Amino acid sequence: MALRDFFGRLRGGATQPTPETPNPDAPPPVAEIPPPEPEAPPAEITPPEAEAPARNGWFARLKAGLSRSTAKLTDSVVSLLHKRRLDDEALEELEETLITADLGVAASRRIVEGFRRTRFGKEVSDEEVKAALADEIAAILDPVARPMEIIPARAPHVVLVVGVNGTGKTTTIAKLGRHYAEQGLKIGFVAGDTFRAAAVEQLQVWAGRTSARFFAPAKPGADAAGLAFDALTAARADGLDLLLVDTAGRLHNKSALMEELRKIIRVIKRVDGAAPHSVLLVLDATTGQNAVQQVKVFKEMVDVTGLAVTKLDGSAKGGVVVALAQEFGLPVHVVGVGEKAEDLRPFAARDFARGLMGLD
């Protein structure tokens, strides 16, 4: 899928509204750090017909990122079913193997039932097993492989980015900002993880690289809701198209984090009753089944609308993406395989399924 297709191009511009009279009851003003002048114009989007080498490179990196999961899954499955009829005993062992590969109980059962309907009692080759598994996995993933839609009429479209600290929220915001900026959108970053100076500084650096407007807390530990309120007010006045809001992820104190996220949402709704328009949950693929628990917890706190799965490197437990798709049905918007901006790409069900099974 080309970046042009995924991120879309907004047409037209928002009429800049007249700034409102300051509200004495509003939170204290935000310290705004203007971005430096860009060193070069945004990179031009490569036409789809010229993208084949890049796509091939991306798929190779995706396969490499899934290599640990692939080895664990294919070695076990192939040794289990090699030159063996798919009888009840074999299918039961297959289900156990898929569960231990992080695909989850529900997805594993669904895959095995698919095998039972189409291949029960037959001998199958190693390649047939892998191809059939890839097809079953792709069928589970296909309904959730959907891009995050940015609606022009909502400008600024507010994306609240949530997740446990360390999952890659801040870098995901930076990468998304760059991609959307290349589409011609006016972007704003809100450093809402106010207690983590490193997160604020990192986002400021990326704001400079993408010519995004940057909203920082007045001081460490400042009220994140007040920051979000002022940032959204300023973004509307300046005609920004997209506002990406970073948040804290201190899950060890669930009740405090829940209240902070809910407060942010309450406050920004005073500016725009429909905001946040998207709530993106960032998950670390190396945590395996712990990612399933994180989705459950964050769904209790906020209305999660989509997922970003990061750190699909050689240590990732990629099978958990299948478990997430089967259990929650939430859109998986993007996946990441590295630290570079181009290492975050739209989620493609068939590519992921075949990469997971080590197929080209």
What can you see in these coordinates?
The chain has helices at 3-7, 52-65, 67-81, 88-103, 105-119, 126-141, 169-181, 197-210, 224-238, 254-268, 290-301, 320-328, 349-356; strands spanning 31-33, 157-162, 187-190, 213-216, 242-245, 278-284, 306-310, 332-336, 344-346. The chain is built from 13 helices and nine strands. It is an alpha/beta fold. It is elongated. A hairpin with a 7-residue loop joins β8 and β9.
Short characterization:
The protein has 360 residues and is α/β, with parallel strands linked by helices. The protein contains 13 helices and nine strands. It has helices spanning 3-7, 52-65, 67-81, 88-103, 105-119, 126-141, 169-181, 197-210, 224-238, 254-268, 290-301, 320-328, 349-356, and strands at 31-33, 157-162, 187-190, 213-216, 242-245, 278-284, 306-310, 332-336, 344-346.
List the helices and strands and how they pair.
Layout: H1 3-7, E1 31-33, H2 52-65, H3 67-81, H4 88-103, H5 105-119, H6 126-141, E2 157-162, H7 169-181, E3 187-190, H8 197-210, E4 213-216, H9 224-238, E5 242-245, H10 254-268, E6 278-284, H11 290-301, E7 306-310, H12 320-328, E8 332-336, E9 344-346, H13 349-356
Parallel strand pairs: 2-5, 2-6, 3-4, 3-5, 6-7, 7-8
Antiparallel strand pairs: 1-4, 8-9
Helix pairs in contact: 2-13, 3-4, 4-5, 5-6, 5-12, 6-13, 7-8, 9-10
Strand and helix order:
HEHHHHHEHEHEHEHEHEHEEH
Strand content: 5-15%
What sort of overall outline do the alpha carbons produce when their principal axes are compared? elongated
N-to-C CA distance: 17 Å
Radius of gyration based on Cα positions:
22 Å
Helix content percent band = 40-55%
- Structural class call reads alpha/beta
Spans where pLDDT lies below 50 across 5 or more residues? 1-22, 26-55
Number of separate helices: 13
Average pLDDT metric = 83
Q: Total number of β-strand segments?
A: 9
Strand order of the largest sheet: 1-4-3-5-2-6-7-8-9
